[in-house]
Specification:
Strand content: under 5%
Distance between the termini: 119 Å
Number of helices: 10
Largest sheet: none
Radius of gyration: 45 Å
Helix content: 55-70%
Order of helices and strands: HHHHHHHHHH
């Protein structure tokens, strides 16, 4: 067989149909572009609907959690309010007992008995009501909080009347000065403190407390006057503000000392060094007064820098 007959036989094999199935009945299928677009849109809508259902389910769960958290928060706030109210009542009772004991010890008139602070309790006869705006302005004028936690108008009114009654009593029994005290002041000529400490619970010890309170008030008054006479530029400078802050801090730090002297409960381990410091300052031995202050504040312990050098 030559090459030409071989090629013709192969070509004839290739030209024969591979399947006996007619073309019209073959499995070949096709879709229109509109059908494909409709299927795509339907799939997109189904996906978006599923996402929307998922979002709604999450939103319902979140709303449920928020409601539960809100209920728990209200319960916590209510419990906190009750505890704060109980703590406030206990604190007021303790302060009232301390104030009554202090007044009894100093021979001052006792505080008037206060009624219950319940909202339902009526005001006593002669206890006139004050409008809310006037009451707020009056509390601000005496530098007191306008409203305490959970306080009602009647409770606020009774608190204002207690404060004004206490202030009116203090105005007749407490001495004037940068730090108000029940200790009677002494003239400047009698402020020189002794070098030895008299026995406790004696008239001499009480007189020493009067001397110390009068001397400290005199120094604070002179300090305040010196700061007030400075020029406006010095007051607004860093040094002026620092000096004013130091004086205000000294006022705050000396108040507990005055309370101890009023009640005559100041420890001798503190009173004796204070007496030494004041005596040295009155005799213009300021270096000795500073040394006494250092011994009182830090003792005789070596500084770390002195140990390491």
């Amino acid at each position: 067989m030559d090459f030409a007959s071989l090629m013709s036989s192969e070509i004839s094999k290739k030209s024969k149909p591979t399947s006996a199935v007619p073309v019209s009945e073959s499995t070949v299928s096709y879709l229109k572009r509109a059908d494909l677009e409709a299927q795509r849109q339907q799939a997109y809508l189904d996906e978006q609907a599923a996402l929307q259902r998922e979002r709604e389910a999450k939103l319902i769960q979140k709303r449920k959690r928020d409601e539960e958290e809100s209920v728990r928060s209200r319960e916590r706030d209510e419990k906190r309010r009750r505890l704060a109210e109980e703590s406030r009542l206990r604190r007021e009772e303790d302060e009232d007992k301390k104030e009554r004991a202090r007044r009894k010890r100093l021979g001052l008139p006792d505080l008037p008995l206060s009624d219950t602070n319940k909202e339902g309790s009526p005001l006593a006869e002669g206890e006139g009501d004050i409008s809310e705006s006037d009451l707020i302005s009056k509390l601000r004028s005496i530098k007191e909080p306008v409203t305490l936690f959970g306080e009602t108008h009647k409770q606020r009114l009774r608190r204002y009347k207690r404060l004004t009654a206490a202030l009116s009593t203090q105005a007749t029994t407490f001495s004037s000065g940068p730090i108000s005290t029940s200790l009677d002041p002494v003239p400047e000529s009698d402020m020189l403190v002794p070098s030895t400490l008299p026995p406790p619970k004696t008239a001499e010890r009480t007189f020493i407390f009067r001397q110390l309170s009068s001397y400290f008030n005199m120094l604070l008054k002179e300090w305040s006057h010196a700061l007030s006479t400075q020029s406006e530029s010095v007051k607004q400078s860093f040094q002026g503000k620092a000096a004013l802050g130091a004086m205000q801090q000294s006022l705050t730090n000396l108040r507990p000392l005055f309370q101890k002297m009023e009640s005559q409960t100041l420890e001798e381990s503190i009173l004796e060094p204070v007496l030494e410091i004041v005596r040295a300052a009155q005799e213009r031995r300021y270096v000795d007064a500073n040394d006494g202050y250092l011994r009182l504040s830090i003792g005789k312990a070596a500084w770390p820098i002195g140990v390491t050098m």
